[in-house]
Amino acid sequence: MKVSQLVRHCSEFQRHAGAGAPSVVFSKAWHPGKQRFDLRIPQEEAAGLYIFSQCAEPDWDFPAEQNQSDIWYMGTSSTHLGGRVWSHVGRVTDPFSGKANQQAFSQHRRGDVPNVRDDIARALTVGEFVVYTAAVTPLRPPGNGRGDWPAALEKYMLLQHFLDHGTLPPLNLSF
Hints:
Layout: H1 3-17, E1 23-26, E2 48-53, E3 71-77, H2 81-89, H3 118-126, E4 130-137, H4 149-165
Antiparallel strand pairs: 1-4, 2-3, 2-4
Helix pairs in contact: 1-4
């Protein structure tokens, strides 16, 4: 699934949800390798979705609605998107010396998963991927004490990916 397709599927989700549908606002692109010293994840305090994708060519900095790059991973956070993204990306500095790692994202959580294509694993290790966040508000559907919109939206997106492509995104290991 392309990033732009995910944006369209979010609109479909909102239509299906009806009058109480959440607002979904996509961030600008964040490129860990090129913005490695700008450590602020867009919308980092929000709840919502986060998406890792292939870098768009020739320039990575496209709005999500226009990005035709493949999605590699999608996840959700009901509290803090920034913390979830950094838990996947790993440390940018060596924990012992405090100096920048030669391979900035060598501790990426998905970089050594079996059956992940070599080009994706390499891109993760050197920070050549793009992250989008999508803030989802409100967190919970009206009158519902259980469940939350970001988790429901993520499952809807994963299902759409599966229905469209017969598989999950390459870094999503299971539902």
